[in-house]
Amino acid sequence: MILSFKDKVLSILSFLILFTSGQPALGDTLKVCKSCSYTSVKLAVQQAKAGDVVLVEGGSYQESGIEINKPLRLIGKGKPVIDGNNTGQIITVLADDVTIEGFTLQNIATSYTRDDAAIRVIERNNIRILNNTILNTYFGIYLQNSNNITVKGNVVKGENTGKTESALGNAIHVYYTDNVAITNNIVQGHRDGIYLEVVKNTKVHRNTSQYNQRYGLHFMFSDGNTYTYNIFRNNGAGVAVMYTDNVRMEHNTFEDNWGAASYGLLLKDIRNSVIYNNTFRRNTTGIHMESSSRLDIKSNNFERNGWAIKLMTTCIEDTFRLNNFTGNSFDVSTNGKSQLNHFEHNYWEKYSGYDLDKDQVGDVPYRPVSLFSMLVEKVPPSVMFMRSFMVDLLDNMEKVLPSIIPENLVDEKPLMKRIEHDNDRKLTQVLRQTAGTP
Amino acid sequence: MKLLKSIATLTFLAVLSACSVEPKPIPYGEANCTHCNMTVSDNRFGAELVNDKGKPFYFDAAECLAAYLVKQPELQQSASFVMVTDYTNPGNLVDAKNAHFLQSEAIQSPMGMNLTAFADELTAKQMEQEHGGRILTWDQVQSAVKNDTKFQR
Question: Where do the domains of chain B lie?
C-alpha cells in the first residue's frame, strides 16, 4: 500500500520533471563570443540544427550574408553588434519558425539593383523579429511573400541627411505578405517608415514613425488592415493610403507634416474605411482626399492645420461626424460645386451662429468652405491675400448669399461646444439631445 | 539710352526664355504626382508631361503618366513632351515613345506594375535576360495600364 503510493508519487514526479525539462531539451544552445568555441555568428548558424538556439554575447562581429535555413532562435545577449561593413545584406531568413532578437545590425550600402536589408524574410511563415536596433542600412526589415510575422520593439534608424530619396530604402518594407503584426517600433530617417504593398490582415500598432523622407506609413493595394495608436511626425507626409479598401485608422497622431506638398493623411482611391479618434496637428493639410468613397470620419481633432480637410469632388458618400475643428487656416476646401458628402454634429471653432433653444446645437447651418478657400484652390498664389480686408468682405458676402461655394457642403447641426472625446457620457448626452430635435 | 535699350532687350529675352516649351528637371521630394498625388521621390522612375503651353506635370512612375494619358487621350496629341526616366541613368529623362520598357517581377516600381524604362534597347534586353519579364513599347504600356485591375479601378 505504502509502496504503491510511493510509486505513484515517483511516477508523477518523474512525469513532471520530464514535462517541464522537455522544452529546452528540444534544442541545443550554441554560444557565440570572442572566447567561445564559435566566434562567428555565421558559422554558429551554419552548424546549428533545427530547433537550436544560437546565443550571441555582447561584442562586435564584422559579418554579412548570414543565411538562416532551419528553424532556430538567434538571440543576442547584451546587445551584440553585427556590422555589415557595407558588404551586403546581413541576415536572410530562408526557413519557417525563426526568431531574431536583441541585436544591433548596422551599415548596409545603397544599391540600385539589389534592395539589401538588415533582415530579409523570403517566402516564410512564423517569423519573429524582436527588439533589434538597425542603424544606417538601405532597407531595414524586408518581408516578401511571407505569412504570419511579428515585428516588435525594433528601432530602425537611417541616415537621410544629404541623401537623395532614391538612395534610401524603407525602414520596414512588407511586400505580398499577410498577417503581420508591427508593434512598438521606432522607424526614422528612411524613405517610408513602414511600407505595405499588397498586404492583408496586418496590424500596425503603437509605432513612432518620424523624419522619413516620404511617408510615415504607406499603403498600396493593401485591403483589410488596421493601424492604431501610432505617431507620425515630421515626415515628408504622414500616411498615404492608396488603392485600398477596408482600412481601420484609429487613435493615431499626425503632426508636423509640413511642406508645400505635404499632408497628414493622403487618401487616394480608398473605400469602406473608418477614421476614428485621430489627432491632426500642425500639418499643411490634415487630410487630402480624392476618389475616396464610403468613409466614416468620426471623433477626430483637427488642430492648427493649414487646411484641415481637402475634399476633392471625386469623393462621394463620406461622412464627417463629431469632429473638432480648431485653429485651422481653412477648415474644408474643395475644387468644385458638386458635393455628395455628409457633415453633421461637428464642432467648428469659426462658427459664429447662436443657440437660442439651448440644445447645444447651433440654430443656423455652418458652411466650412469659404469663398477664399475656393479661390486659393484655383489660384494658389492668391493665398497671400489671406486675412486681408477684401477677403473678409468677400467671405462674409458669400456667407449671406452663397453662390460660388458648394451649397451641399454644409453642417446643418454644428455643435456649440468642443467635443471631449474622452468623456463618452457627455458625448452620448449630446447625441441624445440632438436626436430629439426636429 | 544705350543702357536702357540693352536692359529692355535683356528683359525681353528673359521673358522669351521663360515661355520656352521644354522639359524641366523633376523636383524630387517636392512635387506630387499629378495622377496619384504620391510624392515623386525615386529618381529612377519619375516621369513628366509638358503640355503645349510649356507647363510641366510630374509623375512618380511611368504607369501614372500612362494612366493619366489613358484618362485624357486628347493630351497624347497636344503634349509637347512625354518623358520617362532611364532606369540606368537616374534623373535623366528620355522620350517615352523611344523608350524600351521592361515589366519584371524582380524590379519593383513605385506603383506596383513593375515597370522600368530604358533609353537603350540593348540594355533593356540585357536586363530582361538578367531579371526575366517582358519588353513593352510605350503603346503597350498604356494598354497594360488600361487593363490593370488593381491600378485602374
Answer: 22-151
